[in-house]
Design a protein that fits this description.
With 191 residues, this protein is α+β, with helices and mostly antiparallel strands. The protein is built from three helices and eight strands, in the order αβαβββββββα.
Length: 191
């Protein structure tokens, strides 16, 4: 009778262990990300964070809100986010990537400063064979151990040099607005 109980209990325990282990470790977030449907849903996730802050929602259409997770299992926790936006500006489409991370970035030394937070803001124009001109504006800053990287970019070979300069100034101003909103929220959380 004892042998029969052992022969039933041991395989049952092994099967139970395998099922529990699979439930706990089975990948749910295969790419370490979780998409959410709205700004409100994204902001709720980070409302109590001490160093992850979101820029305000605006009229530029959002293509996706993504939460970057610290693992792939169902027990993974949110770390940071990525907001991807797109706006049509006549003959060009501008894409915005508002991204922050806790690893994989080089700390920002900063050549400019806003309310005690150093940041860099650079522009780039590249032209490759037979491809349209690539224009990018990049703003980076750090809050604690979180690296914020906000970018705006577009392809165009239809703009005049004057239009390119105007677009670049507008994109720089837009990225600075996003960064200042985040920095202001950070400073408000300190006080």
């Amino acid at each position: 009778k004892i042998l029969k109980t052992i022969l039933i209990a041991v395989p049952a325990a092994v099967i139970l262990f395998v099922l529990v282990d699979a439930f706990i470790t089975w990948p749910v977030y295969h790419s370490f990300t979780k998409d959410v449907e709205s700004y409100d849903e994204l902001s709720t996730v980070f409302k109590d964070s001490e160093d992850v802050f979101l820029p305000d929602e605006d009229d530029i259409p959002t293509l996706s809100y993504t939460i970057l997770m610290d693992g792939r299992t169902r027990f993974a926790k949110p770390e940071t986010y990525c907001i991807f936006k797109s706006e049509n500006r006549g003959d060009i489409t501008v894409y915005y990537n508002l991204y922050c991370a806790v690893k994989g970035e080089t700390p920002c030394k900063g050549t400019q400063e806003y309310n005690g937070v150093a940041y860099d803001l650079i522009s780039e124009k590249r032209q490759e064979d037979n491809d349209p001109d690539y224009h990018g504006v990049y703003l980076s800053f750090d809050i604690g151990e979180v690296f914020y990287r906000f970018n705006a970019f577009y392809d165009s070979d239809t703009q005049s040099p004057e239009d390119e300069k105007t677009t670049e100034e507008q994109l720089r101003a837009q990225l600075e607005t996003y960064a200042k909103q985040v920095i202001d929220k950070y400073n408000a959380s300190l006080g």
